[in-house]
Amino acid sequence: MNSEFRKDYIHNRWVIIAPKRSRRPHDVEKTQRTKAVNKKDCVFCPGKIDKNNVVLETVTLGQKPWAIKVIKNKYPSVSTDNPKAYGQQEVVVETPNHQKEIEELPIKTIAEIFKVYARRTQTISKDKKIDYILTFKNSGGAAGASLQHSHSQIFATEMVPPRMQEKTLKIKEYHQKTGRCIYCDIIKKEKKGPRHVFEDDNMVAFCPWAPMHNYEIWLMPKRHVDNITLLNDDEIKSLAEMLKKILKKINKLGLPYNYYFHQVISDTHQHLYLKIKPRGSVWASVEIGAGFIINPVSPEEAAKFYRGK
User: I want to staple 134 with a disulfide (CB 3.0 to 4.6 A). Which of 155, 202, 239, 279 is the partner?
Assistant: First the structure.
């Protein structure tokens, strides 16, 4: 396959799909995801977390000492006592086990993590100053994780990022022109194409047309749902099952990854998605200088990988 320019579904952002780039020689070691090891001073382990952090929620699921804890971020970039950078930041500690990764947890626990995201989103949304909520997970140092113990975060602020403002505008323009949701149309198209990975009655997984990252994959509810607080139990279970399956695949690649989803509270016409972005390549001068993102793994090949056994 020769290189090809591809434009994002919505944003004015271009990607160069360049499969031949994967064959270029390397003598610099790539940073990969590493397995967590025991660490006596881990602040997220039982016995440490309650002493050092403000606990916002504890989920037991019938296990000891607990299954999931939500705590205030001790080193926030935004806070409610800072009018120059107003917001909230929370950490969701996904397991008391320092060795476990999220894909190793039971489906029931992963589903409960999503329910925790929903409950915390509802609570944060009560702050009328907050208009943007980002829920995300960084796994591996190259993906921005600073602590090995499995956790995710919720970042909320009064400022809506310009990129999200642009997306909201584009979605509204599409709806005014067609009477339809652009993401609902994307789902219909990708379900029939070579980037489709799998689906069930509730969710669909596919690799996007113009991915920014190697093996990028999106999970979306088939039902038009604005945000995570509106998902029903069956949809959450489907989301948990798909996430577990996909992360196990990414783990075989040994890659760090990020996953995330957004909500603009003042915009109730969004379509929820969970984007998973493995970090298999480092952006260099073309990406930073020209703004063209070079991806050596086509989404069609990535989809084949995810569909394989």
Answer: 155
CATH code for residues 4-22+32-307: 3.30.428.10
The confidence score (pLDDT) of residue 252 equals: 92
Q: Dihedral angle at the C-alpha atoms of 137, 32, 213, 110, nearest 10 degrees?
A: -30
- In angstroms, the CA 20 to CA 3 distance is 8
Displacement of CA 174 from its chain's centroid (Å): 25
Residue type, 163: R
Q: How far is residue 266's CA from residue 81's CA, in Å, rounded to a whole number?
A: 22
CA distances from 251 to 30, 32, 174, 236 (A): 15, 10, 37, 22
User: Which residue, 74, 87, 86, 215, is CA-closest to 147?
Assistant: 74
Which residue type does 280 have?
G
Alpha carbon distance 64, 96 (integer Å)? 9
| Backbone angle region of 215, left / alpha / beta, with phi > 0 → left and psi within -120 to 50 → alpha | left
**Distance separating alpha carbons of residues 131 and 18, to the nearest angstrom:** 38
**Tens-place pLDDT, residues 213-252:** 999 999 999 999 999 999 999 999 999 999 999 999 999 9
Q: Please name which of 154, 239, 36 lies closest in space to residue 247, comparing C-alpha atoms.
A: 239
Which region, left, alpha or beta, applies to residue 106 given φ > 0 means left and ψ of -120 to 50 means alpha? beta
Which parts of the chain register pLDDT below 50? 22-31, 34-36
